[in-house]
Amino acid sequence: MIARRDLAVRVAARTDLSPTCFRIALATPEPLAAAPGQFAMVACGEGFDPLLRRAFSIAGVARREGHTLVELMVKEVGRGSALLRRAPLGAELRLLAPLGNGFTLSPGEGGPLALVAGGIGLPPLLFAAERLAAQGVAFDLYLGAATAAELLEAERCRRAAAAAGGELVCATDDGSAGEAGLVTAALERRLETGRRYARVLVCGPNPMLRALARLARERKLDAELSLEEPMGCGVGVCLGCVVELADGRMVPSCKEGPVFPASRLAARWSE
Ligand SMILES: Cc1cc2nc3c(=O)[nH]c(=O)nc-3n(C[C@H](O)[C@H](O)[C@H](O)COP(=O)(O)OP(=O)(O)OC[C@H]3O[C@@H](n4cnc5c(N)ncnc54)[C@H](O)[C@@H]3O)c2cc1C
Ligand code: FES
């Protein structure tokens, strides 16, 4: 297990990725390791506003010139994410990471892996894609968004998938880029033409997670879903993030997840 740390970090870089999303790199001289699917709780301002830290999936971790760079991709939806978007370069923030359990990245016997990302669900899957590409593990990456303008990091995704001999499949709800319609439908079309995957790794909005859980149940796919339940503490104390499992237990998704095998989740996820 990778030890979790509460670190002072500085804003080292920020780039807009779309009208609503941006990438931010947070630097610390301390070493930090993380696995794809794990997340960080970030104090988005320099004081106590907002009081609670916000949860963001780790999109990458790199060690460069004596610093660890933690990469996040953020959608601006409220106070915390707006503060992150406006924080000046060099501003000091706090970051608690790595938290939770990540995806299973080992290659399977039933074919390559399928990585399925919807909108701002991309960060943990981009981290997974670049890890898998570095290890030479084959995967296809399905990237969905509402419009072409909200398709995040498509070129970087294409490079990662191609490095391991895989394909990037883009889909937009309005058909402005890639295949028209839901990214889950793009995956289903390929399954219908005989494409087989050892495991499907998924992160995105809840309706997409439910569609994937349903598909996994119907087609007996091994699927892992990264849930994004609203979180207060990130460490299993406040119980604000509980999810129901198939055996009826209620568990904090920050500690037992955020990545869960679809088959472990209560039936309502796949109805
Ligand atoms: C494990 C995990 C990983 C996450 N990874 C990312 C990520 O990589 N990038 C990213 O942009 N966001 C991610 N999120 C969601 C992110 O935590 C929220 O968007 C963030 O807390 C919003 O903070 P805010 O202060 O800007 O907005 P707030 O003012 O707190 O909320 C604004 C609006 O967003 C809604 N909201 C808050 N949290 C969530 C949530 N978890 N899911 C859906 N709606 C929510 C609120 O109900 C409200 O309507 C993740 C959440 C979890 C639990
Ligand atoms: S966020 Fe507090 S218990 Fe999970």
* CATH topology group of the largest domain: Rossmann fold
CATH superfamily of the largest domain: Nucleotide-binding domain of ferredoxin-NADP reductase (FNR) module
Distance between the termini: 34 Å
What is the total domain count? 2
CATH level 1 name of the largest domain: Alpha Beta
Which strands sit side by side, in order, in the main sheet? 4-3-7-1-2-6-5
Low-confidence stretches: none
Query: Mean pLDDT score, rounded?
Result: 95
**Elements, N to C (H/E):** EEEEEEHEEHEHEEHEHEEEHE
Main beta sheet strand tally, sense and closure = 7 strands, antiparallel
Shape: globular
Helix content: 10-25%
**C-alpha-based Rg, rounded:** 18 Å
Structural class: alpha/beta
Strand segment count: 16
CATH architecture of the largest domain: 3-Layer(aba) Sandwich
User: How much strand?
Assistant: 25-35%
Count of helix runs: 6
